[in-house]
Amino acid sequence: MTHAHITAWFLALVLFFIALGLHKSGKAKGFRVVQMILRVFYILIVATGVWMLTSISTISLLYILKSAVGLWVIAMLELILIRTAKQQRTSTLWIQFVVAFLLVLYLGFKLPLGFHFL
Ligand code: HEM
């Protein structure tokens, strides 16, 4: 399930940048379509994450923190796209996104399931 989880968030990240690119080139319809597909990926990320949580016998605080930061990353992706579409400022959201993303990678690879090179 870790592979499905990694695939889901990696593809979500790719779609996120595609959506930003489409917005920049003025393709509003394409932007909205990619945004919709991205929302399906949010569900897949959460579903694979929860699936892994159910396979663990004792869920430590670190797992709860990892999941919360994961949800924080998803919230930032969604908010950045919404505010970009409305031509509003996104700088504080971008800072939160970078911090949360680095933290979730650190916690994810540090926790025992799947790869652990940290
Ligand atoms: C965009 C958001 C997210 C990113 C970038 C992300 C990233 C990662 C990474 C890099 C790993 C390590 C995989 C491995 O060791 O092979 C991981 C594992 C995990 N993630 Fe996420 N994740 C996200 C969202 C979530 C959410 C929302 C949840 C919970 C609902 C969640 C729950 C978990 C769990 C339980 C693990 C297993 C931890 C372990 O290695 O023991 N993740 N995630």
TrEMBL record:
InterPro entries: UPF0344. This is UPF0344 protein BMMGA3_04300. The keyword Transmembrane applies. It comes from Bacillus methanolicus (strain MGA3 / ATCC 53907). It is a multi-pass membrane protein. GO terms for cellular component: plasma membrane. It is found in: Cell membrane. The lineage of its organism: Bacteria, Bacillati, Bacillota, Bacilli, Bacillales. Belongs to the UPF0344 family. Keywords: Cell membrane, Membrane, Transmembrane, Transmembrane helix. The chain crosses the membrane at residues 6-24, 36-54, 60-81, 93-109. NCBIfam families: PRK13673.1-3.
